[in-house]
Design a protein that fits this description.
Elements (H helix, E strand, L loop, with lengths): L3 E5 L4 E2 L2 E2 L1 H14 L3 E3 L12 H15 L4 E5 L5 H14 L3 E5 L8 H14 L4 E5 L1 H4 L5 H10 L3 E6 L4 H10 L5 E4 L5 H6 L4 E4 L6 H12 L3 H17 L7 H9 L16 H13 L6
Parallel strand pairs: 1-4, 1-10, 4-5, 5-6, 6-7, 7-8, 8-9
Antiparallel strand pairs: 2-3
Helix pairs in contact: 1-2, 1-9, 2-3, 3-4, 4-6, 6-7, 9-10, 11-12
Length: 293
């Protein structure tokens, strides 16, 4: 079910509050760029610093603004199984098309604990679910064998966002999973390598800025135009790297602000970019001929 380009949306803030006007405009840009779907309140959406009411509000706004013109894949993961169940149920009630479930962080469950965590969520809601393995943030990886168990036992777990940085792991997943279970890249800089070994899309940070270009990369690969896919990858590669020279989503919000689309405001403990890194990012935007405000 999940394939193509999904934008891991930032959550715009202004004076500490969610900037709903900027959020609507961002979603309109994504739809105009041809993305398959949008992902509100993932890591890029600063979910750790949104309170519960804000979390559900952002999902509901995404559903309202998208108006069925693209999929809405709500970030509902937690290191508490009960909280993940609650958030996923509320996302379903708000009209989301699916849920993205990051691996439980900090408490570092065993693989059996991970299996039971995801099975409990799958049993509690009819929504299609995408697993999200990102050991660099969570301290654990969703093991390949665990993903295969979940795919076999939970029909609504249908995809994984793979952000472990390993092309080999994508090959391992494809070896053990049914063809209908999709793998999406969780790193813009690895989208093209991951596609080459069986991934079918990306949950992208860069598409906040350049949705049509990320769609073009994935579409070119799918249509067999490898030269075009490589050309887009190489052109955008400096941006892919610079969007992570400081903690996500600080750089992408800085870039969006530079383009006049929203404030660069983030919530503590995140803070503004250092001047040298901000200058480097702005130079990369200029090199791509993006219209700075």
């Amino acid at each position: 079910m999940f394939r193509g380009v999904y934008t891991a949306l930032v959550t715009p803030f202004r004076e500490g509050k969610i900037d709903e006007t900027a959020f609507r405009a961002l979603i309109e840009d994504q739809i105009a760029g041809g993305v398959t779907g949008i992902v509100p309140v993932g890591t890029t959406g600063e979910s750790p610093t949104l309170d519960h009411a804000e979390h559900i509000r952002v999902i509901a706004l995404a559903v309202e603004y998208a108006a069925r013109r693209c999929q809405v894949l709500a970030g509902t993961g937690s290191n508490s199984t009960a909280e993940a169940v609650s958030l996923t149920r509320e996302a379903a009630a708000a009209g989301a098309d699916g849920a993205l479930l990051v691996a439980p962080y900090y408490n570092k469950p065993s693989q059996e604990g991970l299996f039971r965590h995801y099975r409990e969520i799958a049993r509690a809601t009819p929504l299609p679910l995408m697993l999200y393995s990102i050991p660099g943030r969570c301290g654990i990886e969703i093991g390949v064998e665990t993903v295969a168990r979940l795919a076999a036992e939970c029909p609504t777990i249908v995809s994984i966002k793979e952000a472990g940085g390993s092309v080999e792991r994508v090959s391992q997943l494809r070896q053990q999973l049914p063809e209908v279970f999709t793998v999406l890249s969780g790193d813009d800089s690895l989208t093209l390598p991951f596609l080459s070994v069986g991934a079918v899309g990306v949950v992208s940070v860069a598409s906040n800025l350049l949705p049509a270009e990320i769609v073009a990369l994935v579409t070119a690969f799918a249509s067999g135009d490898l030269a075009r896919a490589r050309a887009i990858h190489h052109r955008l590669y400096p941006l892919f790297k610079d969007l992570f020279i400081e903690p996500n989503p600080v750089p992408v919000k800085t870039a969006l602000a530079a383009l006049g689309r929203m404030s660069a405001e983030v919530r503590l403990p995140l803070c503004e970019m250092t001047r040298p890194n901000a200058d480097r990012l702005l130079a990369t935007l200029r090199a791509l001929n993006l219209p700075l405000a």
